[in-house]
Amino acid sequence: MKIEPAMHKDLGAIQALYEQLYARMAQLQPQNFRPARQNGEFLMYMMLGEDSDILIAREDGGRIVGFALVRCQNTPEYPSFIPRRYAVLMDLAVEESRRRQGVGRALLEAVKAWARERGAEFLELGVLSQNLPAIGLYESFGFSESRRVMELELGGS
Fold first, then answer.
1. Across the strands, what pairs with 122?
2. Dist CA 144 CA 135 (whole Å)
3. Which of 34, 55, 36, 43 lies closest to 12 in space, CA to CA?
4. Are 50 and 119 spatial neighbours (Cβ–Cβ below 8 Å)?
5. pLDDT digits (tens, 9 = 90+) for 100-148
6. Distance between CA 88 and CA 69 in Å, rounded?
7. Which residue, 19, 91, 118, 119, has fewest beta-carbon neighbours within 10 Å?
């Protein structure tokens, strides 16, 4: 398996993995998510951006079995924020049949190297609280919780 930057020809495979990702998110939080297909123009924008990339996990036969979408940015210029450059792992997906075989960990290693090359001081991600396998992977990699997002359903009345 090889981790490398995605190219235009990889769009279809990445979109198929996004369909798996979005279907899983819809299962975990049906009140917030629905199955969907990621926009190809957005993916191309992220591939070609100076501070963003899509890294893919490609098997020896050429099949793409996972990807990581990552972006580098600076903290907002708020008076209370310490100015820092950091990377955001926006999405990570591994084909269901290849989970728990080191693909996700290899992608995380590549994202970490990508972020360091761009001067990032830390790596941040968001994960659905119900996605326990992903949380386990991230924690085993060294991620820890730094803040919490909470939600209150207001209903229709």
1. 86
2. 9
3. 43
4. no
5. 999 999 999 999 999 999 999 999 999 999 999 999 999 999 999 999 8
6. 9
7. 119
